[in-house]
Design a protein that fits this description.
Blueprint: H1 2-24, H2 31-43, E1 45-46, H3 53-66, E2 75-81, E3 85-91, E4 94-111, E5 117-130, H4 135-169
Parallel strand pairs: 1-2
Antiparallel strand pairs: 2-4, 3-4, 4-5
């Protein structure tokens, strides 16, 4: 009986020590550390010229996250927003007034000096709209859903670029 208790206690203590040893090798970075590390890269970023309301919203969202831009750009960001595709949500064969909207952004980050593509990809986002009885209200709801998607895609694009810039620090 004492052997079983001894083994159980030994295993419990061993697991705790192994957990502490594993966690001690991890580094924890706060968001302010991440922002501080990547802000110098973002400050040397050039955003594309806007030609539409969607691009204005995307650039504004990115500018809100980045803050200050240095006039001496080292990187240029290009992106293309897809047009929002809408589908009617249905349940058990019955259509509803709720629409599902999908939008995506394809992006490329280039180094200006070498013209090399540093990172690229596509980001998707979904939003629901509708649930309003009037047709005018549904149109307005769809417009707001599209604007919400652009802001969400801007936030996700910023986070993707932030992850790329963090890999440069390692």
């Amino acid at each position: 009986m004492w052997c079983v208790n001894y083994c159980r206690n030994f295993i419990a203590v061993s697991l705790v020590l192994l957990s502490l040893a594993g966690l001690s090798s991890c580094s924890v970075r706060t968001l302010s550390d991440v922002d501080l590390t990547t802000s110098t890269y973002f400050q040397h970023l050039a955003l594309p010229k806007t030609q539409s309301r969607s691009q204005q919203l995307m650039n504004r969202t990115l500018s809100d996250y980045i803050g200050h831009f240095d006039p001496d750009a080292h990187y240029v960001l290009s992106y293309e927003l897809s047009s929002a595709s809408r589908s009617v949500l249905s349940s058990a064969g019955e259509n509803s007034s709720i629409n599902n909207t999908k939008m995506s952004v394809s992006y490329q980050l280039r180094d200006i000096a070498t013209d090399n593509i540093l990172t690229s990809g596509t980001i998707d986002a979904f939003a629901t709209s509708g649930a309003v009885s009037s047709f005018h209200g549904q149109d307005i709801s769809e417009d707001f859903a599209e604007e919400r998607l652009i802001k969400l895609l801007g936030e996700r694009l910023y986070q993707k670029l932030q992850l790329y810039f963090l890999t440069l620090e390692v």
